[in-house]
Amino acid sequence: MKQFLGKRAVASAVSLLGLVVLVFFLSRLTGDPTDLYLPVDASVESREQFRELHGLNDPLVMQFVNYLGDLVRFDFGESIRRNEPAIDAVLRGFSWTLTLAVITMGLVTVCAITFGALAAFNVGGRFDRFATFVSLIGASAPDFWIAIVAIVLFSVNLGWLPTSGTGTVWHWVLPVAVLFIRPFGLILQVVRGSMISALQSAYVKTARAKGVGNRPIIFVHALRNAMLPVITVIGDQAAALLNGAVVVETIFGFPGVGKLMIDSILQRDFTVILAAIMVTAFAIFLMNILIDIAYAILDPRIRY
Amino acid sequence: MKLRTYLQGTALALVAALPAYAQDSTVTVVLSEELDILDPCESSRSNVGRVVLQNITETMTELDPDEGLMPRLATEWEDMGDGTWRFHLREGVKFHDGSALDAEDVAHTLVRIKSEDIVCEIGAKFFGGIDLTTEVVDDTTIDITADPAQPILPLLMSTVTITPAEAPLDGHMEEPMGTGPYVFDEYRRGQDITLSSNPDYWGETPEVTGATYVFRTDSAVRAAMVQTGEADIAPNIALQDATNPDTDFSYSNSETVYTRLDTTMAPLDDVRVRQALNHAVDREAFIGTILADGTELATGMTPPSTIGYNKDLQPYAYDPDKAKALIEEAKADGVPVDTEITVVGRINNFANVLETMEALTSMWREVGFNVDLQMVEVAEWLEHYSKPFPEDRGPEMVQAMHDNANGDPVFSMYFKYASEGLQSGVQDPKLDDMIAEATAATGDERAEDWSEVFSYIHEQAFDVMLFHMVGFSRVNERLDFTPSIKTNSELQLEQISFN
């Protein structure tokens, strides 16, 4: 296990470095942040002064070497636009996104597994058809549309919830609900499919023959074996959320890392782009390792 | 039993935590973007201005669109000749840290906006190419000299937010500070900014005792927040969200849309071709269809409330036959009227910009022009709009929107029309002289000179002038506040009262 973790850490570090190189040069290909920072009628001297202050006049390779040198000391640089270090802005945004992702994925996992398992138990039954219908709608509806409709319905018309923002528990209800829908639909379908094959397997038939009750058959015998593909999909969906739930963050004015990343790309705030990508990439590497460990726990045949 | 008590407790806590809706004498303003920076020297940016300008940090003078230039931190000023102006400061004014405002603070501010170690937008936008020197006469008197001389220096001072002499010259201020009626409390990044009233303010105590600013990118959400009472003012909402006549206001937002012609290149160097481009456009057809009702036809680069705006000018009439005749006439004289002209539009510049540009392009094609529309992102657009222009370019028309809420055409004319102007497509020595003359003139003569400049540009059809735009605000009915042309750049809390 230790050896496995060591290998993974090295592989992750190499990928991360590759990512830094790629993003550093790609983002600079988009152009000069000066044009976006200063007003259209700013003088040529002001533009030149801005470039000089932010080291944008140096040769690209030298900018890169300087950047790497700072990075070794965990200095991610100052944001060009914000009056603060890039990493501060990113960690602040990431903590919001992480909380949102953990709450949402926790709820999704519990609900999707429960409903998926129950749906698989009686394939074609009323509950199965209902669950499939709901999950397909959930997996296909665009989230910006759901978000706006939810605001109009629950905030404007019914007045039950705040439209957007942060501050109280109630502010979390709509963003979590909107984010919940798609992964819930997807994972429910995977659980259902995986459970159907597990329930048809020989060991379930044996259990039934021995007179084991329905509940232990579903939740003890079949579910654990059906979980491997489910874990993979949960990992994918969680990674998507960690990258930032851009649409939801934008509409609900939620100060997460996804919106920060999009804004920094549009404004060519290079240090923030790089810091945001590194932090989220690191989190995703970490999560992948956790998933690998989960495999080993669920399936005793897997050993690292 | 224990569980029940716990649940009841939780329920009570949740009810208590329900959103504290905007109430009593504080207001909540919902802005369209999170603020990157809160330094007063950046307050020429719309959303920074709406928080900082005249609320936290004040200016020496202040432009009232109806009354003209008014005193603020300076009580009076006089022209001492040779580019020098003497300003007398208001006595008894204190910064939020308790220190008194004096001439040294003003001198420091003017150094700071042009500091080499930070880029301040006020300095970059309004004082590019102008050297400022100061001489402190006494605590409340200061002489400011501009080189080249600026006859409208008092007006220029209405853009400069005065900060204390302790403000750093090599970095942005962490917290905005000034002499204004409101004190900066806190910026919870990504969430909100709060201000509260300044008990030591030199002026009258305003009705609004505090403000919270929140940020929502989506216009529909901003409008919904005012509707539900979560916010009091959304200074800027989209046309399609301005649906309630009781709360939604349209206001002239000081933005002017036009198409800049590269008059140095054939066929656009021919006045008949330029006039034909103007006669080909049915301007009225846009209003109330793809552009909002209330949009005005423009005959000049600045809003009609600007000094010297020539109200006698009429927009070019929609006359396709005349346009065709002018093209024929030019063609007969050997002007290459069939050359392809590239029309460059800026994506997301304003609502329905794509539809507007497509309609314009088809109107030009209708009369026989060979035009090709390219819609590009801001950075690429800027390469066409600002000098140096690309060397290998063909004839171009660049769509742009220009904002001048500062009351004087000087903020626009040099940049847009002088031979050396950064965004000028014109090379006309006569116009250069006229602009220089108007820039140097004072009083009534200044208004007249500018009026002639507007008239000459219009006759020569140096551009296809299009529209003065309108913006929309939603204001909660509990407030007595009417958005105006200044709402585009500031939102003075002291001007708000309650119904």
TrEMBL record, chain A:
Where in or outside the cell it occurs: the entry states: Cell membrane
| CDD domains for the chain | TM_PBP2
Q: Which residues cross the membrane?
A: 98-121, 133-157, 169-191, 212-234, 240-258, 270-298
The protein's matches in InterPro entries, at most eight in alphabetical order, are given as: MetI-like, MetI-like_sf
A Gene Ontology biological process in which this protein takes part is: transmembrane transport
SUPFAM superfamilies to which the protein is assigned, alphabetical? MetI-like (SSF161098)
Q: Which residues form the ABC transmembrane type-1 domain?
A: 94-291
**Family as reported in the entry's similarity comment:** Belongs to the binding-protein-dependent transport system permease family.
Membrane topology label: Multi-pass membrane protein
Output the superkingdom of the source species: Bacteria
Xref: Pfam families: BPD_transp_1
Q: What is this protein called?
A: Putative ABC transporter permease
What keywords is this UniProt entry annotated with? Cell membrane, Membrane, Transmembrane, Transmembrane helix, Transport
This protein's GO CC annotations: plasma membrane
From TrEMBL, chain B:
| Protein's recorded name | Putative ABC transporter oligopeptide-binding protein
Q: Which UniProt keywords apply?
A: Signal
Pfam families for this protein: SBP_bac_5 (PF00496)
Q: Which GO terms describe its molecular function?
A: peptide transmembrane transporter activity
Keyword Signal listed? yes
**For this UniProt entry, what is the primary localization, expressed as one broad class?**
periplasm
Q: Which domain of life is it from?
A: Bacteria
Q: Does the keyword Kinase apply?
A: no
Which GO CC annotations does the UniProt entry carry?
ATP-binding cassette (ABC) transporter complex; outer membrane-bounded periplasmic space
Q: Which organism is it from?
A: Salipiger mucosus DSM 16094
**Signal peptide span per the entry?**
1-22
Q: Which Gene3D superfamilies match?
A: Dipeptide-binding Protein, Domain 1 (3.90.76.10), Dipeptide-binding Protein, Domain 3 (3.10.105.10), Periplasmic binding protein-like II (3.40.190.10)
Subcellular localization: Periplasm
Domain annotation Solute-binding protein family: ranges = 69-419
Q: Name one GO biological process term.
A: peptide transport
Q: Which family does it belong to?
A: Belongs to the bacterial solute-binding protein 5 family.
The record's annotation in CDD domains points to: PBP2_NikA_DppA_OppA_like_12
Q: Which SUPFAM superfamilies match?
A: Periplasmic binding protein-like II (SSF53850)
